[in-house]
Specification:
The structure is a homotetramer of 293-residue chains.
Chain A (H helix, E strand, L loop, with lengths): L12 E9 L4 H11 L4 E9 L4 E9 L7 H15 L2 E6 L6 E5 L4 H11 L10 E3 L5 H7 L3 E3 L7 H14 L4 E4 L8 H6 L4 E5 L11 H8 L3 E8 L9 E8 L6 H24 L3 E4 L2 E4 L2
Parallel strand pairs in A: 5-6, 5-8, 6-7, 8-9
Antiparallel strand pairs in A: 1-3, 1-4, 2-3, 9-10, 10-11, 12-13
Chain lengths: 293, 293, 293, 293
């Protein structure tokens, strides 16, 4: 399934993400490069981590009027990058990312993701949905998206992941969204999609990692609950945080109330994180994220 | 120091706090008691913890027109309480609570507390300020409040607390506010003021308990930071939470920024908790709080 | 379409809403009535507007064990109500409300409402969707809900409403949700559903009523935008407010960004308001609401 | 009164603010200028208003190691600015701004401002406090700040402002903070301090401008209240907004509760705005602000 996308009519842009040791002259080098080829910058965000002395840049410019071909652009950026020891990546707004969704039994995040794609709010392709349960199959079918039921148990986890990876590759998936997928991933699949698996955890991490966070929050008597979207790493619920949000609760809220009210938090926080990922607004380092606004 | 208080002109009220096993007829018994003596209820809040089957009530009524003397009121409530096995407490709005403030070197919470009392926003008496450092002495002096410098080291902790307790008793202190007091209390003083020591911790508990929470929050890359006010128990930073609040942060915020921005959170969260305590709006059970609105 | 509902398995309750002039003895009368018939109260919320001297009560009790039949309950409440001059209404949790949805071209609120019903998060029946455009017909069809396209122009507004009212009555609709329905209702339909039409307005009312609030917010340079759900009255965007929420924006947000980010606000705020309405948690007076927590 | 300031020990920086018509090459020109003189950029924020085609830049660099004198820096920036038609301003972090505070009877904002300066949280000089009432004189005296009581009535407004302006000039005041100063300023004083008078209004503007906003908010039954800090212009409560924040309220909150709870909002929102102003993080255009993070 693919939404028409809001930006279809908008002009194509190139998006360059850079990180490198901080140094005098990086800005000048990049902006000189773009201005010398008539690149009209539409967005320019930079950040310097002073403690670690790392420079981060996201620059987006219009392709219309830009005097370099895409091939030459790549080549020239490579030349530019060398003296500064830049890590960099380049993508074009015309490319439609391919997103796999993993889900278990809870439907609310999946509904929200599908609504955004179906309504054209997001410009992304969902080639498949994978689940360890069959509950969401009808929803996937109504949306016209292939659904793969791959049960997972302790014994079959490895085989299940092997099959998942095969399906993901077959479908040329760019990144994975875990929409309340209640299984732990192994290093196998994480290594295949490093920094490209987005999870939603139903607590304000690092508080209440692991199972049943709403029960723990209720037992602890917190006055605010949260949800956290992060990239998945090998450490459970400990990957780089992309987005968090919270709501106020009180002694009147039972565990069931927290679960119910938390659902809205979860779906909104997850969708904000996916949106930032789709826009290439996120840079990861030291188990943290730079998320440009 | 004592502020004139906003409620000085307002009519005296009685405030009854009740907790007991839930049962049919509690509401009826209490409201019958009040209506039979012409008690005009100005606030009535109840809560039932369904899991633990505990009933909580805070009822406030005007003394003007109430047909019972204070003495008889106590006696009749005792009679009322018996069949329901109620824990209860009664106080009158005319009583001015006496609050001790403990502080170390950070001034922002102390400034905020003093401003509320000096300006008459709160009706409370501060008979003394105790600190393990001398930094805040000039501020206390300007406010006209006796300041006691009681240094604390691992070796002197017990003796220091003994002296603190003597001062607190001498000054007939009702409750203690730890306004960024950076010392761990021992069971000795906690036992003297059970449920009557309010602390502010500079994180969104239970995330980042203990020392240097802003450093930990920065290292973890959270997108939201918080502050938590709670009653002190023997478990460090694990007592019943009264109030929490949060602010959004980003990759742009250094540890120093978190410290700076957190100060406002801390002072506001602490003051909200103290305000609720002053109003007798808090009931504690199972290491949690019922905080009526 | 009807969701199975979360509460299907839970025990039936009765919900009594009361408002009347404040007086001594109301609480006692109501709680005596319930306790004398063995009514186990599961929720009890009261509020007194001190300025206007009005008393509000919502009390919910379990039908299991309650010793009165539904018929007799109504009769006895009528007797109870008389001396206090109570306005009151009584409903049972077993009744499934029937909700009509009006929509125009924007789909996000409709998607969100449908997801909640389809997934069983809400226990409500949607017998029909009415729109002045055809865009949402496929979505309604996929959800299996009858869709009525009723175009509206200045000239046809009255005739259109007459047809709408006929459809609503035919379908025994209890209340109407305007899910970004971009037409002004006339007094005709409002009179048919007083206090039973819920709208979502895409601003923080009373700021920016009327058309294009995001454009106005952007022009004014506000740092926070909001959404407001309210009951519809004859005064445009001026009815009793049920729920509001906000998000922080900045100079970086274009009008398009506000529109995009506002969509999430709108759908969540609308759904919270509908949820409170479904739970009979709202009392309306003086163009304001009491919304119990 | 002057606080020691947190940044005293930190290295001196130069802060350059630029706005001009957007064009290719601005970034390159500025960053080339700095890198050619070994300017180590510590903060670089830019924004482009796409609709109005205006470019905004705030760049901060260390003076240590920068190879130009302050005099030459000004001269070279002037040369740089010309072809791009830049408006620009340059200041150094070593300069301590001089801030006048205007206040009436409400003390909470003044207390908060003074605490920040006295405690060294802010690095700013307060040479005088002006008030139309005498209530705050003791507080000013305790803080050791000259206090001027200048009563204002409709008839004396002009003469009062003339005296205020004389005092402000005499004291070489850089900017003015209206800390709940309940008088309308005339164009006379506004013209003397354009974009340099910061007000706090106790509502979420543009809702409830003018007098008694909490009464209006209560009458309208809003579920959220706010406070707004803005630069003063000739249009009452309609100047460029710097900062806003909100808190959730309910039917339980009386007007007095809104007033009480709003005080914390007001003082925090005002202080955030002043802090941004002190850091030269604000650019004003089209009655809006760019506030860099």
């Amino acid at each position: 399934m693919s939404g028409p996308g809001q930006k279809e009519q908008s002009r194509e842009t190139a998006i360059l993400l850079i990180s490198c040791p901080d140094a005098i002259g990086i800005d000048a080098a990049v902006t000189n490069f773009l201005s010398s080829h008539r690149g009209n910058i539409v967005d320019f965000d930079q950040h310097v981590d002073k403690e670690q002395n790392i420079f981060f840049l996201r620059v987006e410019w219009e392709m219309e009027g830009f005097s370099l071909s895409k091939e030459k652009t790549e080549a020239e950026i490579a030349v530019l990058a060398k003296p500064f020891n830049m890590s960099w990546s380049l993508r074009y707004s015309s490319a439609v990312p391919r997103m796999a969704v993993f889900v278990s039994k809870q439907p609310h995040c999946l509904y929200d993701l599908l609504a955004r794609v179906q309504s054209g709010e997001w410009r992304v392709e969902i080639p498949l949905i994978i689940s360890n349960h069959q509950d969401m199959e009808p929803l996937a079918r109504r949306a016209g998206i292939p659904f793969f039921h791959i049960p997972v148990s302790r014994e079959t986890r490895e085989a299940a992941e092997t099959r998942q990876i095969a399906l993901l590759k077959e479908n040329r998936v760019d990144f994975i969204v875990l929409a309340r997928y209640m299984q732990i991933l192994t290093p196998q699949i994480i290594a295949e999609f490093p920094g490209r698996i987005i999870n939603i955890h139903h607590s304000f991490l690092p508080a209440f990692p692991g199972a049943k966070p709403y029960h723990s929050a209720h037992a602890r008597g917190v006055k605010i609950i949260g949800a956290t979207s992060h990239y998945v790493t090998e450490d459970l619920d400990a990957g780089p945080i992309i987005e968090q949000d919270v709501i106020r609760v009180s002694h009147k809220d039972s565990v069931d109330d927290l679960v119910r009210r938390g659902r809205d938090l979860e779906k909104i926080v997850l969708s904000r994180a996916v949106w930032r990922h789709l826009q290439s607004k996120i840079l990861v380092y030291s188990n943290k994220t730079v998320v440009f606004g």
